[in-house]
Write the structure tokens for this entry.
Amino acid sequence: MTTWYMYARAKDQYVSYVAFSVRSEDISSALDVFGGLGAFGSGGSEDTDILYEFIQSRELVHSADAELNLREIYSASHDVDPVFSFDQNGTIEDLSDYWKRMVKIFYDSGTGLIELRVHAFSPEDAKKISEYIFTRSSAMINELSAVARSDATRYAREELDRSVGRLRVARQAVTEFRSRNQIVDPAAEIGAQTGLLTALQAKLSDALIAYDLLKESAGDNDPRQEQALLRIEVIRQRIDEERQKYTSSDTEGRDFSSLVGEYEGLAVDREFAEQTYLAALASYDSALTEAQRKSRYLAAYIKPTLAERAEYPKRMTIIMLIGGFLFFAWAIGTLIYYAIKDRR
């Protein structure tokens, strides 16, 4: 019966092989003397473990069924070969169990290599399924790599965002101060006032010297003396007016010195915010560069193959195993029978 079924009803199964591993490239900087000049690949054991479970997961089976119509592929010959084919009316749980029969995974945890043996009832279907598994596995590894890069740079990105906000507030405060007081830079204003006072002091000295010389050479009724005294008085008034600007109050009751102090405080806050921003930007660039240096990808060392002949089911092996099992069952039954008979 078994021989008849294996040769008359069992459908040929074709196998597509695909093998790959998760690689992680740590590319050293060209300026890093001790880092080497090349890119050295290393396996990601944790990612390979995840990938091993993912290939057997119901999620992959469900998506493969939606994309490739696994039920139709595996149930096409169910009427002829119900033993090795899938029942079209089976549930997703049944399909997941059948998937594990048709997709064999060989995983070497030491080297991180995964080899798949994908069975189907036509070589094209077997290759199509193996290609789909590789594509989905590669997409999942890329997603894991993107999540890892995002996690590696998230803290630096948050710190950069905070520093940008702090810098924006500090610059806005300086802008509001200038707009409110109509002063671009109080320090420059002080420099201009100091220069003006110095020039007025020089003019006052010249006027006093000229007046002394005029008194020595002219009479008491010389009108030039009155003009010289008037000039001296005007210069002194001008000096007093300029000096009063340092202590005179504006419409809000603040004098010029308080404005200078307020501006200096705002300038210090802005400078600190700028330095914090530059440090955060450098830290973010460094984190981003470091994350980009370490990328993971799926490397196939055996691409999905297209079978030329059927390898399964192993008809003679199955017949011999069933024959051997039946023989041992008969032998054991016979021994039990004669043992019971001898006791009687």
